[in-house]
Amino acid sequence: MKLSTKIVAALLAFAMPAAPAFAQDGAMQLNGDVMAVKTTTDASGAEATELVAPTVIVPGDRLIFGTDYTNSGSEAVTDFVVTNPLPSAVALAPDADPELTVSVNGGNNWGVLGTLTVTAEDGSTRAAEHGDVTHVRWTLASVAPGETGRLEYPAIIR
Predict the structure, then answer these.
(1) Tens digit of each residue's pLDDT (9 = 90 or more) over 129-150
(2) What is the pTM for the complete model shown?
(3) Which of 25, 30, 107, 146 has the most CB atoms around it within 10 Å of its CB?
């Protein structure tokens, strides 16, 4: 099943991070993007991996969701939180940073994936899995004036 350009556009819209509730005088600028991971093999059998703009994506394809940040203010910004919801069409990739702070219940509770559980319809609980992740979050302890950085997480098309 190929995903159309319209669906790719929807994924790009989800790449834009949710604005934090308090942006500390608006000093922080955020810009999100989504790139597809493309692996090619040359005539000698050597593989090369590159990030490309997603045009047509299919289940199993790998994407990298990224958020660039800049402190455009004149003072350091502390404890700045960036939260990105995962589009329903993707799952957090199994090789994502195991220390990444995530939610498996729509942003109501947070932790590292290995410490979270989900409740099944019958009321039983099980360990949360990568496919259960609904949001990822980073807390930047301090961002100096003029400082820039990039936050990323890998995902797989469901």
Answers:
(1) 999 999 999 999 999 999 999 9
(2) 0.81
(3) 30
